[in-house]
């Protein structure tokens, strides 16, 4: 599995969303946009059930860590969730697979990680970036760090326990640190 990156340019973030919608449909674009706003791992994002959404929060137990994640929804996230709930009132999952709709006896399932990963990586190739499902989480962390310069906040949002892991994860390189030293003169 190759390393994927954060999208550091906000115009490119919007372009990826547009290309996902145009090429793969609204559902995959919604996965991208909600993933950017919730900063969850893809397995947790796809496992969200409508019952996990409580007015202005998503509450779920993270699959990888077992930690309870309580995430306050911003306006964009609420809009996506409300639109999906209105369009698919009988769905269990926020991003429910349509593949088994012809077999009424099958239990509902979320979209597969593989399908979402393929869609995002194909659009990444189109825009010239190494993108994958972790790119949503990394992008959120990168932009929070760039807006606040508060590594502790980024660590808390991503639920990391090490500064070094967080810096590497969001793509802050030695070049970025060097540029900050050169650009900021006191």
From TrEMBL:
Q: Which Pfam families match?
A: Phage_integrase
Tyr recombinase domain location: 5-182
Keywords assigned by UniProt, alphabetized: DNA integration, DNA recombination
Do you know which InterPro entries this protein is assigned to? DNA_brk_join_enz, Integrase-like_cat_sf, Integrase_catalytic, Tyrosine_recombinase_XerCD
Mention one GO biological process in which this protein takes part, according to its record.
DNA recombination
Which molecular function term from Gene Ontology is one that the record holds?
Answer: DNA binding
- Protein name as it appears in the record: Site-specific integrase
* PANTHER family (alphabetical): INTEGRASE_RECOMBINASE YOEC-RELATED, PHAGE INTEGRASE-RELATED
Xref: PROSITE patterns: TYR_RECOMBINASE (PS51898)
């Amino acid at each position: 599995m190759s390393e994927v990156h954060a999208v550091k340019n906000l115009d490119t973030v919007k372009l990826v969303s547009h290309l996902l919608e145009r090429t793969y449909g609204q559902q995959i674009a919604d996965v991208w946009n909600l993933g950017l706003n919730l900063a969850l791992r893809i397995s947790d994002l796809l496992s969200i059930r409508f019952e996990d959404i409580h007015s202005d929060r998503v509450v779920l137990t993270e699959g990888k860590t077992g930690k309870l994640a309580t995430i306050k929804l911003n306006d964009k996230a609420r809009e996506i969730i409300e639109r999906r709930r209105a369009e698919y009132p009988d769905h269990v999952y926020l991003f429910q697979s349509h593949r088994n709709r012809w077999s009424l006896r099958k239990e509902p399932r979320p979209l597969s990680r593989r399908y979402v990963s393929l869609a995002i990586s194909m659009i990444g190739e189109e825009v010239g970036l190494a993108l994958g499902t972790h790119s949503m989480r990394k992008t959120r962390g990168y932009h929070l760090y760039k807006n606040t310069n508060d590594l502790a906040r980024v660590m808390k949002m991503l639920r990391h326990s090490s500064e070094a892991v967080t810096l590497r994860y969001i793509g802050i390189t030695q070049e970025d640190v060097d540029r900050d030293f050169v650009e900021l003169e006191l």
